[in-house]
């Protein structure tokens, strides 16, 4: 069985990847956070009927829960879109061997069922099925319900990988998706259609007619085939490469950057790096998603008083793109890092150019979020404060962490099968820096002076900006200390 | 020009390089031969401060390469494709490196005309990114880039690899002319014993990280090398 070998190779690749070779302390902290999250989920699942009863005392909790499921799947879809890495397999290693092509494609298409995200929701759903549905209906119904939920999660998984893979080739697809989702939210908001009523209708029908389980099964098969046939058409390496033969762009001739001397030259190099690799380019196309995040939350009343959550949104919107750049800025250059070490003389300017580029990205994002002021002036205030925090604090944290990158990122490989190092572990390790401002803010809120908390976050950022020279110096020293390790990792 | 003392490098306990003492004088062309894993690339990486030595030092013009960036102003190098920025066109790459080395527009034009023959019309004006060039053409770009700032020290790791026969001969001629016309110090490694004897006036054999022979090139050198590597 060839699948056995594929699985074995993948397992070894994962086990031997440098993700696990971080230092022990980081792994322990991460492990602790993960355990905590799992516990929360399980608790949530055990008590969700009580919560639903509190929130909607007049309704049957099963009906309410069924009404949420479609929303949940939509939310999960977006989460997957950002956090889930595309399943990959180095196909060129196998293509020349007497292995059936369809086996390779089946493996790559099906691999995503091993993603842990597929099973996390079970922690919530399974307790609900056995604690609430089972006594009210019957064991058979509970199992049926659970099974159809699991199947829907799997089809969601396949759909997300399909869309993500499409995005790599065709960024417009995600735009269309965003438009559909936003219009659904708007329509629901104005009570034109009700997603929740639809959702609960589907599931109550399903609980009455077991035969309907065929629908989620067909959905899984359908979404799986989407992946299968997409990959099948892309299997020849030369077909992947064919798209790469793009026209030569003229990004090298930006006048303004030329006036900035070496720093400008370095920024221009980074611009071209981002624009000329599919993988980084697709990040640019993701910008509307980062920036559109506010639309999901600002229109809903109730969030207005919840500054803590809005701070998180603000940081994410004004800093998300900057993070994508700063956190990987050395890794992006792993292909020619030796050249940098052997030729650059002025590393101060090198570091500075990266910082400048990073905060320019954040500034552009900030300016683009200004129109959200339409939803309330406090949104502008929050985004301004979080923007300052991003410039003067988060940027340095990301930059500092970037010096610990050791993983070669082969951007020049076709992106269809290549999404290494962009998964959940990376986001998780950045969480503390994103959450810190909320921890700063909370005590102020408990004291009844939330505004002071906000200003404090902004002040923290301003302080960082004022001392940016010394902070960049620290990063420069750190760079000197880490450069051999980075170069060694990048050579692998 | 280059002084090496007590230089050792080990990877998890295995010593891959151990050079007690080596001095390369200005104007010398120093060839390095040895089988795979002998430590050639490791040695060059240490000279370019790309890896950290476990002990000892490399001094370039009497300054430890670890301690200062000065050597970068007069050292040109090409070790492998990791030196190329492959999403640029060759012109953009040379333009960028010209900026790094502080070359003027005139210097750059002069460089292009000097390397016209070496490029053999396969590099410039092709509207291709470096990543879309063939292996041999990538190698040409890298070697030319190492030479563009008129370095006093040139470090090339297996430069003949992947070049077509004509370009190999052009490279030999180019290096020999440089030797004649300037005081350039060259460090070149190769698996091709014939080529290296044609270019270098001093050849060292590296085995398991140690320099076991250090020969002045003469008419017999090629034979000596061949008999050493014979199986």
What do these coordinates show?
The complex is a heterodimer of chains A (492) and B (231). Chain A is mainly α and 492 residues long. Chain A has two domains: 245 residues, no CATH class; 247 residues. The longest helix of chain A is centred in the N-terminal third of the chain and has 32 residues. The radius of gyration of chain A is 24 Å and the shape is globular. About 3% of the residues of chain A have low confidence. By secondary structure, chain B is α/β, with parallel strands linked by helices. Chain B has one domain: P-loop containing nucleotide triphosphate hydrolases (Rossmann fold), CATH 3.40.50.300. In chain B, 35% of the residues lie in helices and 26% in strands. In chain B, strands 6-7-8-3-9-10 form a six-stranded mixed β-sheet, with helices on both faces. In chain B, strands 2-1-4-5 form a four-stranded antiparallel β-sheet, with helices on one face. In chain B, a hairpin with a 2-residue loop joins strand 4 and strand 5. At the A-B interface, helix 14, helix 19 and helix 24 of A face helix 2 of B.
């Amino acid at each position: 069985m060839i699948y056995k070998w594929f699985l074995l190779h993948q397992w070894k690749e994962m086990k031997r990847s440098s993700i696990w070779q971080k230092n022990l302390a980081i792994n322990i902290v991460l492990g602790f956070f993960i355990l905590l999250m799992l516990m929360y989920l399980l608790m949530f699942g055990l008590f969700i009927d009580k919560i639903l009863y509190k929130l909607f005392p007049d309704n049957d909790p099963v009906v309410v829960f069924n009404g949420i499921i479609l929303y949940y799947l939509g939310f999960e879809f977006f989460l997957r879109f950002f956090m889930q890495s595309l399943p990959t397999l180095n196909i060129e290693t196998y293509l020349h061997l007497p292995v059936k092509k369809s086996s390779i494609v089946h493996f790559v298409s099906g691999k995503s069922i091993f993603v842990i995200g597929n099973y996390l929701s079970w922690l919530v759903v399974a307790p609900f099925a056995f604690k609430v549905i089972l006594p009210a209906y019957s064991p058979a119904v509970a199992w049926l319900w659970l099974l159809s939920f699991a199947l829907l999660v799997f089809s969601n998984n396949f759909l997300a990988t399909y869309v993500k893979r499409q995005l790599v080739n065709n960024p417009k697809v995600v735009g269309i998706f965003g438009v559909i989702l936003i219009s659904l939210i708007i329509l629901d908001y104005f009570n034109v259609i009700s997603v929740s009523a639809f959702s609960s209708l589907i599931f109550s029908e399903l609980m009455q007619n077991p035969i309907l389980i065929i629908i989620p099964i067909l959905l899984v098969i359908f979404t799986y085939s989407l992946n299968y046939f997409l990959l099948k058409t892309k299997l020849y390496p030369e077909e992947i490469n064919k798209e790469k033969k793009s026209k030569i762009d003229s990004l090298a001739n930006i006048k303004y950057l030329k006036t900035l001397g070496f720093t400008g030259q370095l920024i221009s190099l980074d611009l071209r790096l981002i624009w000329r690799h599919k993988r980084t380019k697709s990040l640019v196309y993701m910008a509307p998603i980062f920036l559109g995040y506010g639309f999901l939350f600002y229109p809903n009343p109730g969030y207005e008083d919840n500054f803590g959550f809005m701070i998180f949104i603000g940081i994410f919107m004004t800093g998300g793109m900057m993070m994508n750049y700063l956190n990987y800025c050395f890794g992006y250059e792993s292909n020619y890092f030796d050249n940098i070490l052997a030729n650059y003389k002025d590393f101060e300017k090198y570091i500075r150019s990266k910082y400048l580029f990073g905060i320019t990205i954040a500034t552009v994002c900030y300016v683009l979020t200004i129109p959200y002021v339409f939803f309330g002036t406090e949104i502008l205030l929050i985004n301004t404060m979080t923007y300052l925090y991003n410039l003067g604090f988060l940027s340095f944290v990301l930059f500092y962490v970037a010096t610990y990158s050791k993983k070669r990122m082969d951007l020049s490989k076709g992106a269809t099968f290549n999404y290494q190092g962009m998964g959940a572990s990376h986001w998780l390790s950045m969480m503390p820096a994103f959450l810190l401002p909320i921890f700063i803010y909370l005590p102020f809120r408990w004291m009844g002076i939330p505004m002071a908390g906000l200003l404090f976050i902004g002040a923290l950022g301003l302080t960082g900006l004022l001392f940016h020279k010394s902070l960049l110096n620290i990063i420069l020293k750190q760079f000197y200390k880490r450069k051999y390790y980075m170069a060694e990792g990048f050579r692998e | 020009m280059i002084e090496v003392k007590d230089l050792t490098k080990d990877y998890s306990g295995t010593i891959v390089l151990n050079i007690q003492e080596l001095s390369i004088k200005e104007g010398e062309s120093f060839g390095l031969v040895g089988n795979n894993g002998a430590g050639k690339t490791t040695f060059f990486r240490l000279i370019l401060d790309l890896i950290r030595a476990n002990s000892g030092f490399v001094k370039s013009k009497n300054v430890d390469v670890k301690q200062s960036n000065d050597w970068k102003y007069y050292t040109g190098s090409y070790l492998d494709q990791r030196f190329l920025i492959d999403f640029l066109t060759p012109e953009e790459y040379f333009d960028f490196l010209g900026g790094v080395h502080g070359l003027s527009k005139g210097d750059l034009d002069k460089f292009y005309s000097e390397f016209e023959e070496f490029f053999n019309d396969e590099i410039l004006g092709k509207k291709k990114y470096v990543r879309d060039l063939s292996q041999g053409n990538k190698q040409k770009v890298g070697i030319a880039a190492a030479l563009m700032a008129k370095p006093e020290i040139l470090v090339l790791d297996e430069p003949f690899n992947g070049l077509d026969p004509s370009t190999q001969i052009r490279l030999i001629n180019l290096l020999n002319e440089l030797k004649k016309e300037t005081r350039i110090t060259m460090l070149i490694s190769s698996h091709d014993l014939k080529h290296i004897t044609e270019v270098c006036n001093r050849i060292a054999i590296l085995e398991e990280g140690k320099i076991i022979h250090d020969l002045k090139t003469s008419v017999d050198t090629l034979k000596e090398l061949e008999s050493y590597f014979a199986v």
